[in-house]
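User: Continuing from earlier, I have the next pair ready.

Assistant: Great, send them over.

User: Here they are, in order.

Assistant: Folding the first of the pair now:
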Amino acid sequence: MKKLLSILLFLLLIVIPFSGCGTEETLDKYVSELRSDVFEGKSQSYYIRAGYGFKETPFINDGAVGEKVNALNFRLSGDLKDGATYTLSFSCGTETLKQDFTLNPVTHALTAAIEVDNFTEKEFSVNVISSGKTETVKLKSILPDDTLTSSAALKSLTENQAELIDNFTDPDGNLKAELYMRVLVKDQKPFWYVGIASGNEQLKALLVDGVTGEVLAIREIF
């Protein structure tokens, strides 16, 4: 009996010091841009698509993660009149937040961004104000329930594309790049866009199945 107790004690002394040391290193800390949810909604006059997440500022492809800002980003379309001003307004907690839509010089769409931390709502309403008239648009997340989280998508990427990730990793195990991640939904099916930005505008883009984590395409973008 004493011999058995001695063996058990010896095994505990071996196991205890190492418990918790097997924590798997993740790539989450290298993400400098993340769109983790997408919303859609329409009213009689307007259609709004929105996304929530964070983005480093300034947004520069230098291979390093800078200060990140959380925000809801809105895109307005529908029955819009040239030269009219459109203002977005919505309540978040005890605050009422407002922002004018402006023309995006790249997409030529009316967009607005409002800084919001820890936004977890799956449904919410916004008001669009123009020419003294207010119209409410109800927005709802369009992500399917089985969509992988960004962390799960990255975990799958490290497992299925180990050689690719190793190409961007230094001898100490640090990623020599920053990651851009955006979830999107096409025909009710989710996907993750993952960009590996290694600086000097070098970018490797991957399209990942949003349910299985399978990498569907890889492309170099210069």
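And the other member of the pair:
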Amino acid sequence: MRYLYILAIGLLVMSCTQQNEERTIISALDDRTENDFIAKPTTNAIVSALQIDADIWAGYGFRYGQLTDMEHTRRYETFIEPKFSLFDNEFKRKKEVADFKKDIATALESDADSLGRSYSRIWEPILAELRVLGQDSLQDATLYVFSDLRENTPWFSTYRYRDSIQLLEHPNKVARLYVDKAEEFVGMDNVEMVIVFEPKTVLEDISFAQHKKLYQDVCDILGVSIRFTANLNQE
């Protein structure tokens, strides 16, 4: 009986170890190319989306970056490793969770990139972040993009008349242009992208509708799960 008991305990520990290797990750890309977006990432919304209070023992991670005129900008990241409720101190764990939430707040309160913003690079930084999030199959990751999705780069810009007309009249050609930027990109099952934007005017609503279709078409081709919401707090 003693050996059966030891075997049962061993199997339990192995099961818990396998479950605790998994981690929930949220990444937020905050469009700083304009200053008047309604939807913004907040600590409460991120913590709620992670659902960390429902299970303080699981593993969690948060990444944060800003969309500017640069393809590569700094990423803030903070993680809390999984622990075993049977073997670890609950008071200590609650302190670790509280510190993790403070790290999220610190990241979101970081200053905007001080470089100029002659352009708005949106799609390429999104691709780079999707690649990072998809590297670890044990991660259940969600990328929240707070943006109107309006690209303004040398290769495409809806602020240029000819490009805006092309998006309106030949959306398939524009979608192919975006797909071509995703060289050797492989879709992943463990990552979902959520676009968060709330239009303020009718013109913004029309523009965003065009970009929603564009991104949906591009993500369908690349095998990326995508959805849209006006407010992260409504998730």
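Worth noting for the second one:
The first strand starts at residue 23 and ends at 31. Confidence is low (pLDDT under 50) at residues 2-19.
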